[in-house]
MmcQ/YjbR family DNA-binding protein
Amino acid sequence: MSHPLMFDEDDPVLARLRAAAAPLPDVHEKVSHGRPVLTAGEKGKVFAVYGGGVKVRPGVHERHDHAVLLKPDPAEAGALAGDDRFFSPAYYGPSGWVGLDLDGGAHDVDWTEVAELLESSYRTVAGARLLRRLEGG
């Protein structure tokens, strides 16, 4: 079953997210379940998802269309869980992923922090070759 697209290709927030991930080696983008996902390597693992949601109750989800879902370093996960800017995304949260709204809403988006979070998530899934490239080796 094909999922409907749940993003706009001209979304300026998505453009900023792509730019923040661009310095990472061999990043690829594909659409999965209607959302853009970033992978480490062409057939690599997903390290970021644009958009997500929170399960409010069975059958009811609260959408976060301008958010990034990330897999944080386990050493940082506790601090992020205590930060009210982050949420536990439906489906991904039980596996340790967190979501961060990027629409500004209740806080200004710190794009330097977003780039750091993307790199941290990238490091959790990238293989040794990509990590060497990231380190400049």
